[in-house]
Amino acid sequence: MKPYLISALAAILSSSAMAYDVKSGGKTSVKKDGANAYSLPAANLPMSKRLDFSVGNSFFRNPWVQAPASTDARDGLGPLFNTNGCQNCHIKDGRGHPPEKDDLHAVSMLVRLSIPAMTPEQKKAYIKDGGIPEPTYGGQLQDFALQDQTPEGKIEITYTDVPVKFKDGTTVTLRKPHLNITDLGYGDMHPDTEFSARVAPPMIGLGLLESIPDETLLAWADEQDADKDGISGKVNKVWDIEKDDFSIGRFGWKAGQPTLMQQNAAAFNGDVGLTSHLFPNENCTSKQSICDDMPNGGKPEVSENILDFVEFYSQHLAVPIRRNVNDPNVKLGQQIFAASGCESCHKTSVKTAKRPELPALSEQLIHPYTDMLLHDMGEGLADNRPEYQANGREWRTAPLWGIGYTEEVNGHTYFLHDGRARNLMEAVLWHGGEAETAKQNVLTLNKKERDALIAFLNSL
């Protein structure tokens, strides 16, 4: 084993840092294998609240339909949209994937659109909105439309090979994605359009992440790298509609939404074409008359009551427990994960705030493996599209809890914001920027050590 790893492991093993609980989500954690491992309510959610969870699940899982319809609680779909139901993107409450070569639609991937803020008016709007929508197509490309209507376009992804070599000579071939938008339905896009392809992230543990105190996130932040460790995470400050003020961003690949309520309402609007009290306008631009021409499902189409149920559901989806924690290979991998520097951003443990209104999530010791901060991940992962205070190279640290269940829940192992990584090692090797040193440490590992690292990640 490498000298730097030997000294680091000695320090780690002499501390209590390795004594992680198998219950990644604290008392909310559940023991469940198989395709439904992400779909259970928090273990400590009382029976009196499980009906609320089930009702929220029904609005998350079942499809919305075109208005007018006899199912008036679920009508108002579109007319432009990416999906007709949340579960189509967050498959089994899990992770989406990029489109395959012959897929007609992206379904569980979407493409954000924006243009640079150049004029004084645009720069002022950017501060509050976090982006300037593309003038014709808005802030997101919708590749579905109601029957006999025209979708905005089609998303295609192609790849080129990027070989990466380990110190022992083993080569891994990464795939670099190339986004192409075809069949534009409403004319040309702005010549300076910024694009960002993003797959749907898993839904587990979101209420716990929402419950991490602001003070903790601010204490973890080190934007100027004052401690000179090469890690300079920062919080994103985003507009909170309900507060009518800025809040810390927590959700989305660039932490662009402050709360689950706003995240859900934004997804209903942008992904499904549904209005709510938070997003009262249809997702058409002034250059698209289709929203004015088609009947809607009421104003708003998603009631506050429905939003409350979906919020409760998304807050209480449980994290499954860790597996194989006593396997010697997993223990070795855990040591390598720490010694390589991965824990600098993938924080292992934190306690949630006291939340009397949500007792199941209150004061839980959790192990999410994220700091919820924005980090420069290097040019290789850059989308070159800013979002509030996140620049084009910065991404929020993705939580790793439950990641080992991905294949059995979703039937694939595509990772990172655009699903380019086909397995966990490819995801690691795409890291750059602030994570470059950690990646270089991983590149020195031999096969046994690499296998152990992956075994640890799969135990989460």
Automatic annotation (TrEMBL):
GO terms for molecular function: cytochrome-c peroxidase activity; electron transfer activity; heme binding; metal ion binding. SUPFAM superfamilies: Cytochrome c. Keywords: Heme, Iron, Metal-binding, Signal. The keyword RNA-binding does not apply. Pfam families: DHOR. Gene3D superfamilies: Cytochrome c-like domain. This is C-type cytochrome. It comes from Vibrio alginolyticus.
